[in-house]
Amino acid sequence: MNALIEKEDTKIEDMIYEIRGKQVMLDSDLAKLYKCANGTKTINLAVKRHINRFPERFMFQLTDEEVKNISRFQFETLKGRGHNIKYLPYVFTEQGVAMLATVLRTPVAEEVSIRIMDAFVTMRKYISNDLMEYSKMLINHENRLSLLENIFDNFKDKNNHIFFEGQIYDAYSLMLKIFDKAKESIIIIDNYIDKNILDILSNTNKKVILVTNKYNNIDYGKYKEQYNNVTLVVNNSFHDRFIILDK
């Protein structure tokens, strides 16, 4: 007796393939499950006697390309059953399998048909669950992309500025606009500041931390006598310039 039939835990789901957008089973697998004495010949004869019951949506023959797309294991199985590798098998859809059970005369036809129908139902549940999970992943992915696009759109026009030599006022004006966006505090990290930065900061009422690796303490001392919005921090850990708004 065939080992496939002897094992009660045989997974019929593993014999169901997705071909032409339909879930189908190979005639050779069905012949084995139904214990057909002459293999697929028994199925072919039964179908020919009742050909009007098997339209193409119930049963169709695979092409060479479709056979090649079936796993190597299935190729070896076909050859092991005495079929030539060039034999183009027929496949049956769920409706075709149900119809096949009505025309076959084997002792296990009824019992096996129930198992096969259950397997098709199980596969549909698997596919449905996978599609739901995949849809959720796509939605989350699209939401993240939309968020990133919105962020980039907000920044691409506002943060790209080039100033050439002599454009002092334009740079000064932009810096003031940046400072105006702060609600509470500003942190400026710049190793190349001079008195001009204090002139700019005197026009803002925000609390400012000025981080630099060196500065003229005399200028800062004079500034502190009139304004109290700037705290000077000497630190040589930074090599680039940054403006940080509201921390």
CA-based shape: rod-shaped
Contiguous helical run count:
10
Strand order of the largest sheet: 1-2-4-3
Count of structural domains: 2
Itemize the secondary structure elements and their pairings:
Blueprint: H1 3-6, E1 16-19, E2 22-26, H2 27-33, H3 40-49, E3 59-61, H4 64-69, H5 72-80, E4 90-93, H6 94-103, H7 109-156, H8 168-180, E5 185-189, H9 195-201, E6 207-212, H10 217-226, E7 230-234, E8 242-245
Helix pairs in contact: 6-7
Walk me through the structure.
- This protein is of the alpha/beta class and 247 residues long.
- The chain has 2 domains: 3-132, no CATH class; 168-245.
- The protein is built from 10 helices and 8 strands.
- The chain has a 4-stranded antiparallel beta sheet with strand order 1-2-4-3.
- The longest helix is centred in the middle third of the chain and has 48 residues, at 109-156.
- The protein is rod-shaped, with a radius of gyration of 38 Å.
- Mean pLDDT is 76; it is low at 1-8 and 75-84.
Quick take:
With 247 residues, this protein is of the alpha/beta class.
What labels would you give this structure?
2 domains, alpha/beta, 50% helix, disordered N terminus, 15% strand, 247 residues, 4-stranded antiparallel β-sheet, 4-stranded mixed β-sheet
